[in-house]
Amino acid sequence: MPMDLPQSPDALVGVLGAGGQALETEGYCHAVGLEVAFFAEELPPDIPRDAGALGAPILSFAQAAQAFPDIAVTSAVGSPQLRRRLIDKWPGGEVFTVVSPQAWIAPDAVIGAGTTVAPMASLNRQVRVGDHVLVNVAVVLSHNVEIGDYVTLCPGAVLGGGVRVESDAFIGIGATVRDHVTIGAGATVGAGAVVVADVPAGVTVVGVPARPMAERPHDHFSTNESPVSAGRPS
């Protein structure tokens, strides 16, 4: 499970996004010897940014691509759909994977390109994690879990053995998913939910046990919709 960039203090990278998740990702980068050169946003954000808290300037996509055309990037936002859109619109081609040295990764676990694995996460035997996934703090992935591209796993989520999470799904803080359950593409599991049955694509489930709350199209996020107004974090 090699990193995509050499672990040297002068390895420059870029971060797409400039909110709270980007602030956390900057810390993970520093922990493995990567220096963040810029934070980039596609459009002026709908929510305030604390530029003073970040260790690099916030640039537009055009500014960042012109100043740093050849460095690798990762997308650091909580919304799977917004993360996908930022990667699709970024004009460069290189992405990097960052895995916290405080995470535990089984030797046969596989982690895709552009994925972030936060401290205290645990990826057990034969886990497969796709591209551009956010595995947040203290997430537990038991044996044989399969995670699709652009999935968000929020802090403290626990997935039992053989769970399958399809692309663009969102698993909320502290949610638990029982062994061998499938979470469909673009589905949302609410914070603290306990999922004991398969969740169809595009469905939101909440509660204990988790039950459907709403159904929505897979492309729910419009190009100009902020993740906050749509009910998911930045």
Which bin fits the share of residues in helices?
10-25%
Q: Over all CA atoms, what is the radius of gyration?
A: 17 Å
Biggest sheet: strand arrangement? 5-8-11-14-17-20-22-23
Q: Which consecutive residue ranges, at least 5 long each, have pLDDT under 50?
A: 1-9, 219-234
Oligomeric state of this protein: single chain
Summarize this, please?
This protein is of the alpha/beta class and 234 residues long.
List its traits.
234 residues, 3 helices, disordered C terminus, disordered N terminus, 8-stranded mixed beta sheet, UDP N-Acetylglucosamine Acyltransferase, domain 1, Rossmann fold, alpha/beta
What does the model show?
The chain is of the alpha/beta class. It has two domains: 11-89, Rossmann fold; 100-210, UDP N-Acetylglucosamine Acyltransferase, domain 1. The chain contains three helices and 23 strands. It has helices spanning 20-31, 61-67, 80-89, and strands at residues 11-16, 34-41, 58-60, 73-75, 98-99, 104-105, 110-111, 116-117, 122-123, 128-129, 134-135, 140-141, 146-147, 152-153, 158-159, 164-165, 170-171, 176-177, 182-183, 188-189, 194-195, 203-206, 211-215. The strands form four sheets. The protein has an eight-stranded mixed β-sheet, covered by helices on one side. It is globular and about 50 Å long. 42% of the residues are buried.
Q: How would you summarize the topology of this molecule?
A:
Elements: E1 11-16, H1 20-31, E2 34-41, E3 58-60, H2 61-67, E4 73-75, H3 80-89, E5 98-99, E6 104-105, E7 110-111, E8 116-117, E9 122-123, E10 128-129, E11 134-135, E12 140-141, E13 146-147, E14 152-153, E15 158-159, E16 164-165, E17 170-171, E18 176-177, E19 182-183, E20 188-189, E21 194-195, E22 203-206, E23 211-215
